[in-house]
Amino acid sequence: MIQRVSYYEVDMGYDVNIKRLEVSTLIDLQGDPAIITHWIGNDLPPFPERPNTATNAKDISIYWVGSSRWLLRADVLKEQELLSRLRLAETPTEISLVQVSDTLQFFSIKGPDAREIISIASAIDHHPSVFPFNGASYTEIFGMKGLLIRKGEGFEIGVERSYGDMVEDFLLRIK
Fold it and tell me: How far apart are CA 74 and CA 53, in angstroms?
């Protein structure tokens, strides 16, 4: 007799903690970083010096995600303060600052086996020698565009919010 087992009942044995994170404040930044810094001011983290990396300060992160493109991320409780400081409606024509807070759902993947989970979710080479501690890059996650960030003892991934439930299901199945 064959006994069927639900995917949720199978323990794959990975030593990892997977958590769906709260909404983040996200601002898409495009243009010359000197002009953006002049507009924003110096009280935010400096722009990363290398592509596909991040800088962090005062609970705010800036990810270099493309040619002349960055993503600013902060706690949603800082959103109104940031929006009033950034003055999005008054942005000079040389740069673009766009609020995209509701676009991505983030997940935290921490623990000794976090790299194993990322290996299943994405084909990106995330070895520390090529994707360092402050690495941040758009890649495919479970076949869809996602943002991969190396943090502390693991990773965070961001996927389109409409796919959040599906990605959570995938992550729980492989855990």
Answer: 16
Expressed as residue numbers, the domain containing 166 is 16-174
Q: Rounded distance, CA 29 to CA 62, Å?
A: 9
Going by the DSSP 8-state scheme, the letter that residue 42 receives in this structure is: S
CA 175 – CA 167 distance, rounded (Å): 12
Phi, psi angle pair for 171, to nearest 5°: -65, -40
pLDDT over threshold 90, residue 100: yes
Q: Three-state DSSP class for 38?
A: helix
Whether pLDDT at 170 is above 60: yes
The residue whose two tokens read 């800082």 is 78
DSSP 8-state code for residue 14: -
What confidence score (pLDDT) does residue 7 get?
41
Q: What is the CATH number of the domain that holds 121?
A: 3.30.1360.120
Structure-token pair, residue 50 = 């290398």
Residue 156 has pLDDT above 50, yes or no: yes
Over 90: is that where the pLDDT of 174 sits?
Answer: no
